[in-house]
Amino acid sequence: MDAAVEPATPFSAVTAQTSKLQRQYQALLDQSTPYVLYRWIGTGVALFIFFLRIFLAQGWYIVAYALGIYLLNLFLAFLQPKFDPSNDALDNDMEDGAIGTLPTKKDEEFRPFIRRLPEFKFWHSATRAIAVSFLCSWFEIFNVPVFWPVLVMYWFMLFILTMRKQIQHMIKYRYVPFTIGKARYTKNSA
What we know:
Layout: H1 10-32, H2 36-57, H3 61-79, H4 88-93, H5 119-136, H6 148-172
Protein name: Protein RER1
Family: Belongs to the RER1 family.
Membrane topology: Multi-pass membrane protein
């Protein structure tokens, strides 16, 4: 007798097609990785189109507010170090200044800044959130009537307070999450 052959289930074709689409999607993501500026320009254009949709439709303010909160949360994770020096439990678990922590004293060894949320994941999550928000803005169920100026003022207050706290944290632990280009040294700098 022949070896047992698994009967084809109705879901096997769907699973095969889904995995094929996932591989193609991942290949597109992998190809887009080096084009940071173009990726962010595309995301900015998508965000502009979404806000244009909200402005012209005069609705779906709660969707825009939720998107704003989510993007703020992503941005804060992008600014924070992966290993937070203010976390006492983490400091106690790591003896002798384990790799990944930021230096807290002047004579400590330099360790590079490692983000809690890498730039690519930040971009990918933000772009997906904008696409989902745009999609939600076409369904009436998400058009909850709210007084939008209150949402705008609340979002700005939330932004100011969280950024103030983040900047104080950056000053206290002396780290800058941004590097602009490579450091250049002159011949007479020594």
